[in-house]
Predict the 3D structure of the following.
Amino acid sequence: MRPDKTPDHDEPGDEVGGARQPPGPHPPIFDPDDVAAFDAGKDEDEDEVDIDDEALPEPIEDAGEDEDEDEDDLGIDDESLPEAIEEEPRTVLITGASGNIGRKLRTAWADVYDLVLIDEAAPPDDPDVIAADLRVLDDDWITHFHGVDTVVHLAANTDEFAPWEELIGPNLDALANVFHAAALAGVERVIFASSNHVMGDYRTLGEGPISVNMKPMPDGPYGITKLVGERLGKSLARAFDLTFIALRLGWIQEGKNRSETLPNDWARQMWLSNADLIQLFDCAVEAEIEDRSFVLVHGMSRNHGMRWDLSGAAELLGYLPKDDAFAEGRS
């Protein structure tokens, strides 16, 4: 945790759904005309200088040995420097850090990343969580985005049946503000908790696979807000030279999140276990993505017979889920 951070909304419970500008060229140290004039008179000056070799100081023969001794004392050699640099932990900011997914990521990443935790409902007994209303663009919370490598945006009203008036603030205004703050702070990567509800109407349309390449079919206002987040993120990535990863997450229950407590087969097909959830977000943070700025994938476990296509998550992020909601019933 950042020790100097002291004091948004929960992310989905049952289911969840400018970049740093390179510095400009430095002005030339020397004027080109002065350099040309210097070169033109170089030979003439050298002829006039008479250097007596005997006047030169004796070479210091032990300089190299002293240098080696100093390096040995510090325990550092050139070969170890890149490795030491790579071990520097990333700084990851999580919005909705007190919610279902936020708590699970926080537990998994406590000793892995330097975490910046933000939530509208920050617990009074948890000083590591910064209280902030992300619906209002405010310098008081924007400042926490500076120096951050990756933003994980979970904050939202997670009620899939909520009306528009309850979604505009937490699911649209807060979303736009967080993306704005990330871009202006030069954040390298934004990971957005989108939702299966972007494709929810496919539940009643046939039995074929559901791919991220198919046209969106939101099943209500909640799903539409997640679709807006995906499209805004794609535009953000292109405009600010950052990587935006949208995860259309499946069914994630509070707490232990066991498959036997899921309500029906549709939920089992969409189940994302806690272990696979952590792996998915690990991959989203760590994956080397060089050929694209926008990534959209489904995030479910390896549930037998499900319709959700996970090939993109495997290919682009290296996500290989292990759990299956139907495994016990088939054994």
Summary: The chain has one domain: 83-330. The two ends are 43 Å apart (CA to CA). Confidence is low (pLDDT under 50) at residues 3-51, 59-77. The first helix runs from residue 32 to 40.
